UniProtKB/TrEMBL annotation:
GO biological process annotation, one example: purine nucleobase biosynthetic process
Pathway membership: Purine metabolism; IMP biosynthesis via de novo pathway; N(1)-(5-phospho-D-ribosyl)glycinamide from 5-phospho-alpha-D-ribose 1-diphosphate: step 2/2
EC annotation from Swiss-Prot or TrEMBL: 6.3.4.13
Top EC class for this record: ligase
PROSITE patterns, A to Z: ATP_GRASP (PS50975), GARS (PS00184)
SUPFAM superfamilies: Glutathione synthetase ATP-binding domain-like, PreATP-grasp domain, Rudiment single hybrid motif
Name of this protein: Phosphoribosylamine--glycine ligase
Family to which the UniProt record says this protein belongs: Belongs to the GARS family.
Keyword terms of this UniProt record: ATP-binding, Ligase, Nucleotide-binding, Purine biosynthesis
Annotated PANTHER family: PHOSPHORIBOSYLAMINE--GLYCINE LIGASE, PHOSPHORIBOSYLAMINE--GLYCINE LIGASE, CHLOROPLASTIC
Length: 431
């Protein structure tokens, strides 16, 4: 089997890395890829960007690929998977109609309501006055979300009503802007990726990520500053419960609507005193959780994704997982997330690691300078993965590798998975 992976971040680097370890995969190509991916597989430019269906199909046909895996959400919302499937090539990723689950938070709430999925109360607003009223109705902490795609940075959670209202106003100022004001959900957050073929659901191992830029979960939201898996503190039966009460009902509802969901249904959860509640849906692998989840997956990834793309998940054997723990730490550019600086030289990130390496570097926002040097080219520059028999050992190895990275002005969090290592993550229970 030959596979084409669309994307250029650390998520795609992790996917490519896992595919190259799959004995059923003969060749992998990436478009556009990045310097880290290019060290593993051929990379192809996409002149029209990742949503350019004609360019993607040209690459796919030239390489004779059997499967296209779409990493980011924007090309999915734009209909890339539809174009690939219309050309007779299997595609792992939802149609444009199904991708609206991420493309519109208001639509996702409507689907959740129809499928009787547990989530927080929400009000959809199209004017500043409506946002102001919603903030008063739902109370603090205020949760204000841009209805559309915002690369993980469209959400503000704050006790400051003025800050919440300002974010709502900024979202409404966009063309066709809508805002979703939500009830704040207490409790630790969990990310669960569910592989779907339009009818069947196969969950992966849960992970936890860290959205805030600063240690102690301070500062603005980012695309994600780190993650870890497994979650030893999670309640027994959590995954089965989420599949039964959330993922499967949503997949059934989407099929009932005539827009079957094929790809990853990313369920973002809060484990509240009332049980799991959906914070958000995404329609692709999450970054940085993918880095730790795929590190632990021992079932060949290509076989899993092809089964989903071709409606044969029910024929797959149960997934196999490594017992080890995995931690990833994101190294971000100076100024991230507000105004990341590009063009700084990156050292300590080159070199291909062995498949069984205890720590390795995945490229996110990197490029080659005119002199061939590796330079920063995005907000999140690298994702450094550590693996260990314990969470403490995985953390130690990840941070040791981070300390070997050189990037002027860069920053990262030192507390990724720290509370879990100390046994300080608690799921609230009804008193």
């Amino acid at each position: 089997m030959k596979v084409l992976v669309i994307g250029s971040g650390a998520r795609e680097h992790a996917i490519v890395r896992a595919l190259t370890l799959d004995p059923t995969v003969d060749a992998v190509v990436a478009a556009p890829g990045n310097p880290g991916i290019a060290a593993l597989v051929p990379c192809e430019a996409l002149a029209g960007g990742m949503a350019d269906g004609d360019a993607v199909l040209e690459v796919a046909r030239r390489h004779g690929v059997d499967l296209v895996v779409v990493g980011p959400e924007a090309p999915l919302v734009a209909g890339l998977a539809d174009a690939v499937r219309a050309a007779g090539i299997a595609c792992f990723g939802p149609s444009a109609a199904a991708a609206v689950l991420e493309g519109s938070k208001a639509f996702a709430k409507e689907v959740m309501s129809s499928a009787d999925v547990p989530t927080g109360r929400a009000l959809v607003c199209t004017t500043v006055d409506e946002v102001d009223d919603a903030l008063g109705a739902l109370g603090a902490p205020h949760v204000v979300k841009d209805d559309g795609l915002a690369a993980g940075k469209g959400v503000v959670v704050t006790d400051d009503r003025d800050e919440a209202l300002a974010h709502g106003r900024a979202c409404l100022d966009k063309p066709g802007g809508r805002v979703v004001v939500e009830e704040y959900l207490d409790g630790p957050e969990v990310s669960l990726f569910c592989i779907c073929d339009g009818q069947h659901v196969v969950p992966l191992a849960p992970a936890q990520d860290f959205k805030r830029v600063g240690e102690g979960d301070t500062g603005p939201n980012t695309g994600g500053m780190g993650a870890y898996s497994p979650l030893d503190w999670a309640p027994a039966g959590l995954v089965d419960d989420v599949v039964a009460r959330i993922a499967r009902p949503v997949v059934d509802e989407m099929r009932r609507r005539g827009t079957p969901f094929v790809g990853v249904l990313y369920v973002g959860l809060a484990l509240t005193v009332r049980g799991p509640r959906v914070i958000e849906f995404n329609v692709r692998f999450g970054d940085p959780e993918t880095q730790v989840v795929l590190d632990r997956l021992r079932t060949p990834l290509g076989r899993l994704l092809l089964a989903a793309a071709t409606g044969r998940l029910d024929e797959l054997e149960p997934l196999r997982w490594a017992d080890e723990h995995a931690v990833t730490v994101v190294v971000a550019a100076a100024g991230y997330p507000a105004g990341p600086r590009s063009g700084d030289v990156v050292t300590g990130a080159d070199g291909a690691e062995a498949a069984d390496a205890d720590a390795y570097v995945l490229h996110a926002g990197t490029a080659r300078g005119a002199d061939g040097a590796l330079v920063s080219a995005g907000g999140r520059v690298l994702s450094v993965v550590g693996r260990g028999a314990t969470l403490a050992q995985a953390r130690e190895r990840a941070y040791a590798a981070v300390d070997g990275i050189g990037l002027d002005g860069s920053h990262h969090r030192r507390d990724i998975a720290q509370k879990a290592e100390r046994g300080e993550v608690a799921v609230p229970v009804a008193g």
